[in-house]
Amino acid sequence: MARAEQVSVETESLIRRYQKGDELAIGALIRRYQNYVYRLCYLVMRNEQDAEDMTQETFVRAFQALPRYEIRVGISFEAWLYRIAVNRCRSRMRRKWYQVFPWPSPAPQIAADLETQPDRLVMQDERRSEILTAINSLGDKHRLVVILRYYAGFSNEEIAQSLRIPSGTVRSRLHTARQRLKALLAEPEETKRQQIVSNRVAP
Length: 203
Fold this sequence. Notes:
Layout: H1 2-19, H2 24-45, H3 48-65, H4 77-95, H5 128-136, H6 140-151, H7 156-163, H8 167-186, H9 189-201
């Protein structure tokens, strides 16, 4: 908790410095968050070039808006920044035909064990690719909340802030996503393929 508070205080200090005209604060904020933003963009886009482009766009948009940013209790800078990143990714996916690429090997070590510990960021290596493939089969609105919750480590409230939806909607989408993923992961291979097609067209 002390560490989280320290990071928050340091971030707020950088924001205030930038708002007072200290251009050096930009570089410090980029160094602090660029890896996290890139990781999130990559998880959404699953394409290195698009992830790099969206990371750059995220920071351009963020620094354009930062002079008007208000530091408020209960609203984190991280959630604000990641909301910009998610919106940039979604905009890119709407602007062009978007190809879904296979997950790299080894798959990212950032998924959850949905069968036994749905709220823990742990998972056996041999199941990683299988779970990530199942997550990718979800519709966009369910896939995004799973990525933000289990990959980015957001709380339900931070997801709600990032996507601008009610917390209850976040909980509902996560519940639906977990149920679909559990069913998919428990099924034999042929049924999985059929379920993936069904999930992609489900509301």
